[in-house]
Design a protein that fits this description.
- The protein has 8 helices and 45 strands.
- The chain has 800 residues and is mostly beta strands.
- It folds into 5 domains: 131 residues, Sandwich (Immunoglobulin-like), CATH 2.60.40; 154 residues, Galactose-binding domain-like (Jelly Rolls, Sandwich); 250 residues, TIM Barrel (Alpha-Beta Barrel), CATH 3.20.20; 76 residues, Immunoglobulins (Immunoglobulin-like), CATH 2.60.40.10; 107 residues, Sandwich (Immunoglobulin-like), CATH 2.60.40.
- Strand 35 and strand 36 form a beta hairpin.
- Helix 1 runs parallel beside helix 2 and helix 3 packs parallel to helix 4.
- It is globular and about 90 Å long.
- The relative contact order is 0.09.
- Bound molecules: beta-D-galactopyranose.
- The site of beta-D-galactopyranose has 10 residues, from loops.
């Protein structure tokens, strides 16, 4: 292939061309067969798959398995199975695609995939997080049946420090284009000039010619606003040699661009059309957002000229009970919870995330730190990516940048998290090499890395001089010294906190203590594997949420922070041993139910007026209870027990909560926040009586019958007066009928060893969550929940 570069100036003329769909993008997730184990003979078209399971992708076989103390994946991956598996699909390629380029796109396969078409290997891809694709055109039988087989090998364990899942866990598409088309990830859009009046958009477009002859073509790129109205246009002509890629640059002037920011994430898109004469032969869309940002060594981060603290959370890629299965509805739910908390940034820990995640960060207004690696050449666990480093890191990094560089949400490239090479001199050359790769593909964002070593002489990644932005993990005690120590450097707390909490569990008084032990030392936590949800238990390397936030909040030079983590994730329940199988670090639990500290962040980060009190109000008579309140937009909070005032309190200096010690008596605990004497908010918690009713609350009233859409139903145990029974642990059985199927259950308890795929779930501290997915039928869904000794409850969800 020849790669030629031409630059063509903007043309303003409006041309009229025939409009038709020139690129076919098909959902390729349906009608696959799957079998665990190794089945190399499945690549043959005459192979008998009668004992293979039929399924729809995305799929993760690990999440379907049982927890096993002796699993090879170990605790880091939540004691779930891995192994090998094969996927197979027979499909017909229309005869009239003969003159097209047909390719397959995988958004992510964990891991070591090998893809075969009609018995022929198309290639391997070790990296389980990378998006990749293959040209099928030379091998497909047009107008006839074809067989795709995908081998997935996640057998060599342990290979990760967190849960990865196994299988084709992200979407797959079939793409058919004409022989002249925009190449895969073939556009690169930058906004050279942005002001309120004007913007200049530069687009580099790789046009690909799969023909054996030269071709004249015309390229029209149209900027469309969010209502799909054309607001600017660039037109170029070119002549592309046979079998080559030609890079075309278009510069488009735009007037009065609406800026993208975290509160109004205004998105445009660029529709690029390729014409052969007047015939439309390809269309390709690229997201576009106008924003500018700056990291400053003294003033921190600014977005569009506005000083903006990065209120970030780190997220792993799993979707709780769905495992690694990617689903845009699951991602939207996660991000909505984070947005409502006031978070404005996401760190893609510690690897490329899905297309849906990137798309939603653009749409919902998150600042993204996009991260490529958790290991380089030096391993963290026996079979991790270090084994593939030499052969694959260059291509993986390039593909990652090419895939994600048009997302306006992405504002930092992280080349690695807590990389071992920071401690030895080999780190210098590798950092420089990686930064160079990034810069060769994108110069508009800083290159960063999440570092742990703040002694300059010991940190070789820093010494490379190749980082534009220094990320530090867990250095809350030292931030104050950074402006002098790292003079002139731009600094971000790339990871912080790692406090531990179990939703709805509260240890009182002397039982509340900072996590006292070193990693791996004998267990001395609670016998039931819970951790108190007062924000007072932390890992020895971390800080409580409050300790950390105080240090970030008060340092202007600090661009912001990414909290470890927004959600609990499967695996890494450090420092708890088996049966703990999911992390305690989340602000929200694995089921998606917020822990109390969620409201501390909401009171600090969001514009919402907040008053939240904890704990619940079911204790032993006369027991001394710590009552905490998170609040904002008020001067004081007064607490009442059964109508009697327990006093007014207000936050002093840098306090982030207020607290009372209260002798328990059953009844009503009520908090009232006031500003200038006027009531702002009131909050009541009542002592709950006996469990009496299963309450079902769906997060949507209707879903689509598209086999993907999800509805999350929160199940709560209430007493006869509608109060949450905070210690209810009843087993609830579920039955789903109509247009949905149950795809996951979870109660957020880190040591729950029941299957995420069961038709029942034990409540944990009064609650659990059921996930129902459209099964394609156009019938309304009914969820029926039953528990011993109680009347069944039902809820209906429309399907349309
Ligand atoms: C960090 C690491 C994260 C996670 C966290 C747990 O050091 O970067 O991936 O392991 O610790 O506290």
């Amino acid at each position: 292939m020849i790669l030629k570069k031409i630059t063509i100036a903007l043309l303003f003329s409006v041309s009229v061309f025939a409009q038709k769909q020139a690129r076919i993008v098909e959902d390729f997730n349906k009608n696959w067969n799957f079998k665990l184990g190794d089945h190399p003979e499945a690549i043959n078209s005459n192979f008998n798959i009668s004992d293979w399971r039929a399924l729809q992708l995305p799929h993760d076989w690990s999440i379907e398995g049982a927890f096993d103390k002796d699993a090879k994946t170990k605790q880091a991956q939540g004691f779930l199975p891995a192994g090998k598996g094969w996927y197979r699909k027979v499909f017909t390629v229309p005869a009239n695609w003969k003159n097209k380029t047909v390719s397959i796109e995988f958004d992510g396969v964990f891991k070591n995939s090998e893809v075969f078409i009609n018995g022929k290997s198309l290639g391997i891809r070790p990296n389980g997080y990378i998006s990749f694709g293959y040209d099928l055109s030379p091998y497909v039988n047009y107008g006839q049946a074809n067989t795709i087989a995908v081998k997935v090998d996640n057998d060599a364990q342990p290979n990760s420090r967190w849960y990865t899942g196994s299988g084709i866990y992200r979407n797959v598409r079939l793409v058919a284009t004409n022989k002249i088309h925009v190449a895969k990830w073939g556009t690169y859009v930058t906004t050279r000039i942005i002001s309120k009046e004007k913007a200049v958009v530069d687009i580099d477009i790789d046009v690909k010619n799969d023909l054996t002859k030269n071709k004249l073509f015309k390229l029209v790129s149209t900027v469309l606003d969010k209502n799909n109205i054309e607001v600017a246009k660039g037109i170029s002509d070119g002549n592309i040699p046979a079998n080559s890629i030609l890079q075309v640059r278009q510069n488009i002037n735009m007037e009065n661009p609406i800026l993208w920011d975290t509160e109004n994430p205004y998105l445009y898109k660029i529709s690029t059309k390729v014409y052969d004469g007047s015939t439309l032969i390809d269309t390709y869309e690229t997201p576009l957002g106008f924003r500018f940002f700056n990291f400053d060594s003294e003033k921190g981060f600014s977005l569009n000229g506005v000083p903006t603290k990065i209120y970030g959370v780190c997220l792993h890629h799993d979707n709780g009970a769905l495992g690694a299965v990617e689903n845009i509805h699951a991602v939207r739910r996660k991000l909505t919870l984070m947005k409502e908390m006031g978070a404005n940034a996401i760190r893609m820990s510690h690897n490329p995330h899905s297309l849906e995640m990137m798309q939603l960060c653009d749409e919902m207004g998150f600042i993204v730190q996009d991260e490529a690696f958790d290991v380089w050449k030096k391993k963290k666990v026996t079979n991790d990516y270090h084994k593939d480093w030499d052969a694959w890191h260059k291509q993986d990094l390039e593909d990652f940048i090419k895939r994600d560089r048009n997302h306006p949400s992405v504002m930092m490239w992280s080349i690695g998290n807590e990389i071992r090479e920071q401690f030895d001199s080999t780190g210098i050359a590798i950092t420089r090499e990686l930064a160079k790769i990034v810069k060769s593909l994108d110069t508009t964002r800083p290159v960063t890395s999440a570092l742990t070593e703040n002694l300059i002489e010991k940190n070789f990644i820093y010494q490379s001089g190749a980082l534009d932005l220094l990320g530090f993990n867990y250095k809350h005690e030292d931030y104050k010294d950074f402006p002098t120590k790292f003079k002139g450097q731009k600094i971000l707390a790339s990871e912080s906190v790692s406090a531990l909490e179990t939703r709805g569990h509260y240890d009182q008084s002397d039982a509340i203590k900072a996590w006292p032990i070193k990693h791996g030392a004998p267990f001395d936590g609670n016998a039931d594997w819970t951790v108190s949800a007062y924000d007072q238990v932390k890992s020895y390397w971390g800080a409580t949420h409050e300790e950390n936030w105080k240090t970030i909040k008060s340092q202007d030079f600090m661009a912001g922070t990414f909290i470890w983590t927004g959600f609990d994730y499967i695996g890494e329940p450090d420092p708890y041993p088996y049966p703990a199988r999911s992390s305690y670090f989340g602000i929200v639990d694995l089921a998606g139910l917020p822990k109390d500290v969620y409201y501390m962040y909401q009171s600090e980060w969001s514009k919402k007026t907040v008053l939240h009190i904890l704990p619940h109000w079911n204790w032993i008579k006369d027991q001394e209870i710590n009552v905490w309140a998170y609040y904002n937009n008020a001067d004081e909070v007064e607490l009442f027990l059964n109508g009697k005032s327990l006093g007014k309190k207000s936050k002093q200096s840098d306090d982030l909560h207020i607290e009372w010690k209260v002798k328990f008596e059953p009844g009503t605990l009520k908090a009232v926040s006031r500003k200038a004497g006027k009531v702002v908010l009131e909050k009541e918690i009542k002592t709950a009586g006996k469990a009496s009713k299963i309450d079902l609350k769906a997060d949507k009233t209707s879903i689509k019958n598209d086999t993907y859409d999800l509805v999350y139903v929160t199940v709560s145990m209430l007493d006869k007066d509608g109060n949450l029974v905070p210690n209810a642990m009843d087993l609830i059985n579920f039955e789903v009928t109509g247009g949905g199927k149950l795809v996951g259950v979870d109660n957020g308890y880190q040591a729950n060893l029941e299957s995420f795929k069961a038709n029942s779930c034990k409540l944990f501290n009064g609650k659990c969550v059921v996930i129902i997915q459209s099964n394609g039928k156009s019938e309304n869904i009914q969820l029926k929940a039953t528990a011993s000794g109680l009347q069944a409850s039902t809820i209906k969800v429309e399907v349309n």
